[in-house]
User: Fold this.
Amino acid sequence: MEDIDEEGDELLNLSLAIVTNSGGERMKKRKRRDNTTSSDFSSSSYEGCEGKIFSLLQMREQMLKLEHKKKRGGAGNDIVDELDGKGLQLIRMLLITATAVNENNVSSAFENLTELYKSVSLCGDSVQRVVAYFADGLAARLLTRKSPFFDMISKEPTHEEEFVAFTALYRVSPYYQFAHFTANQAIIEAFEKEEDKNNRSLHVIDFDVSYGFQWPSLIQSLSEKGSSGSRISLRITGFGRSLDELRETENRLLSFSKGCRNLVFEFQGLLHGSNLINLRKKRNETIAVNLVFHLNSLNNDIKISDSLKSVHLLNPSIVMLVEQEGSRSPRSFLSRFMESLHYFAAMFDSLDDCLPLESTERLRIEKNHLGKEIKSMLNYDNIMEDRKTEKSTETWKARMESHGFEGVNLSSKSKIQARLLLKIRTHYCPLQFEGDGSNGSSTAAGFRVFERDDGRTLSLGWQDRYLLSVSAWHCHRVS
Assistant:
């Protein structure tokens, strides 16, 4: 992936230029000849595309069979080896395909996707793997849910498969741990500042509790601060997708907290969309709001604004914001596509530092977690349209400030902890820690820590690409 990181932006611009200048007229002519569109498959147009669809699915099936042969060490290895060093060509073809899909040029898109499936592999290098999942996402977008073949390409993982993939990524990569440990350290420090008035009570309101993996480390840290004569009270209110998920999370956290004698722990689970009036609060308790990846999941400005207004009304002592890079562009499909491609290419590349190429665990992570996110992003149809009247290019920083929040400097302890975590979790590549303006180096390798926004943001990066950013915010006090 080094060649992509070095030439990424230039390649993306070049590829779009190639599509616009040399292929634009050809695509327009094909579009006039082809009455099919990705948004309206009538019976007659579907029949006209039937041969192309079957050809596409046939090549995809051969690609999937190649994975099984490769796992067994049989035929197929030579094909994968021959593809080494052709990452740039794959990316270029993928971008041309994305442009064809965006322009509803079904014929050209099918042809390019068929060629892509001949050249990618779910067990190849990181470029081949990420392109394979983006190709699936484009194919699903092209077919739409009306097609009987849609589910063959966009089959959702089961709840158990999602959980196993999430757990595996949490274990082998510093990605989620970096976000969680950095956020927890800032929450602990906010609690410590108010110990003279909070009755040793902390209330964390987590807007997306997502299995509760963030909280055992906080539970343990608070227990170590307490004593048998002065126990600390921790209440976590977690919002989840389903009652089953909330029950599992509650059981997991209660079971862990039983070994922490100096802590009184409570958990309240609420479904997403529940009224915040249902929150149970104690007098003078320190309130911390946890927005870890939550705002990234909201699909329009109104929902984001409503969430931030609700958070402000809670009058929290600290708000932790963790944002996933590569998902903030509300502009055109191609803009969103290119940002996401950069992000996921870095994520797939980083997994090579965490797991061997032949790892079935890596395949599960990519198929049931990262691959699911890619397909979801590519089929995020029309949800950004409402943003045209809003500040659609507004950064998270500007958005937080416009809703009455002020950034807080992360402590030196948070930064030391982040460096230590990556030192422990880094496998093959050397750890690097950089300050503002250091991301210009093209020779960097491995996971990196970036200090940004004058110390108010801490980012995890892979080589020179940001993966996620953690920031802390104060709320202007409600009078």
Q: What stands out?
A: The radius of gyration is 24 Å. Strands lie at 201-206, 232-240, 263-271, 286-292, 318-324, 405-408, 432-434, 447-452, 457-462, 465-475. The chain has 18 helices and ten strands. The longest strand covers residues 465-475.
